[in-house]
């Protein structure tokens, strides 16, 4: 019986693109915007941590929690790769879940994301 392997977004894929960045704006629960240079290939959880943006990521990006939950604008959400069932399961635990919610650890920065805005929902604390 062949073994199956599941490929999640790799945290190492950014290495080939380390000099290429796009502007991404994170909007905190209070509405404060912070625009950062995001390396293409890094996931949004890594980008947030690189720029001291408060996005928890309790599991370290291992797809075992929902603390890196982000809300995307509809136009950008529609361009994102399809969610894996495991991500959907974790999102069921997220606060302020919307139709355009995704986990930051599963979304890697692409060139066409230049100028993108993502909202960090209120985590209830």
Structural features, described:
There is one protein chain. The chain has 125 residues and is an alpha+beta fold. Helix content is 14%, strand content 20%. The chain is built from three helices and five strands. The protein has helices at residues 44-50, 74-77, 85-91, and strands at 21-27, 33-39, 69-72, 101-103, 116-119. The protein has a five-stranded mixed beta sheet. Strand 1 and strand 2 form a beta hairpin. The radius of gyration is 14 Å and the shape is globular. The relative contact order is 0.25. Residues 1-15 have low confidence and may be disordered.
List the keywords.
about 120 residues, alpha+beta, 3 helices, 5 strands
């Amino acid at each position: 019986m062949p073994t199956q392997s599941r490929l999640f977004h790799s945290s190492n894929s950014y290495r080939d693109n380390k000099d290429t960045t796009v502007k991404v704006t994170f909007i905190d629960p209070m509405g404060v915007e912070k625009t950062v240079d995001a390396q293409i290939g890094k996931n949004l959880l890594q980008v947030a941590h690189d720029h001291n943006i408060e996005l928890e990521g309790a599991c370290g990006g291992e797809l075992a929690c929902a603390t890196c939950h982000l809300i995307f604008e509809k136009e950008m959400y529609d361009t994102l790769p399809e969610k894996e069932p495991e991500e959907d399961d974790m999102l069921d635990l997220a606060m302020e879940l919307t139709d355009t919610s995704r986990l930051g650890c599963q979304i890697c920065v692409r060139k066409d994301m230049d100028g993108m805005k993502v909202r960090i929902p209120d985590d209830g604390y």
